């Protein structure tokens, strides 16, 4: 079943029982986790081609975080039990899962590389360029808070604010 979610709508919530798996067809989602101390941390970005939640591709587990659409997005929703049944009965399905997890691992390695590259401004530019490829160049600050941007590029919110101001100032001087 295909579902369209608009910016700000929830795909799944932290603690949901994992009744469904989702294939991201288009759009982008941010995944946040609420900790016991009240801190909310952005820990993942979901993009087209992914099957999620990742930790439930082989066996069920409650959702680890909340996935929120950053732009209008389309997903295919499937019953988790039907997926697991097909996995048990179709040996080729295991290779599909392995490829999905390999792709996510490669993405995470790329994100780690981006966190260790040069200056905060360079990391912000890399994040912006990457998200532009999937969001029709929706402005970064329309999708993420400054705090979330900082979490993704490894800097404090104040640094993000300064970088965004500098970027706006350089655009107006051209």
Automatic annotation (TrEMBL):
GO MF terms here are: DNA-binding transcription factor activity
| An annotated GO cellular component | cytosol
Classification via SMART domains: cNMP
Q: Pfam families of this UniProt entry?
A: cNMP_binding
**Keyword entries, A-Z:** Activator
Q: Does the keyword Oxidoreductase belong to this entry?
A: no
| Signal peptide limits | none
Domain Cyclic nucleotide-binding residue range list: 1-76
Q: Which domain of life is it from?
A: Bacteria
Q: Which PANTHER family match?
A: CRP FAMILY TRANSCRIPTIONAL REGULATORY PROTEIN, HTH-TYPE TRANSCRIPTIONAL REGULATOR ARCR
Record's protein name = Putative Crp/Fnr family transcriptional regulator
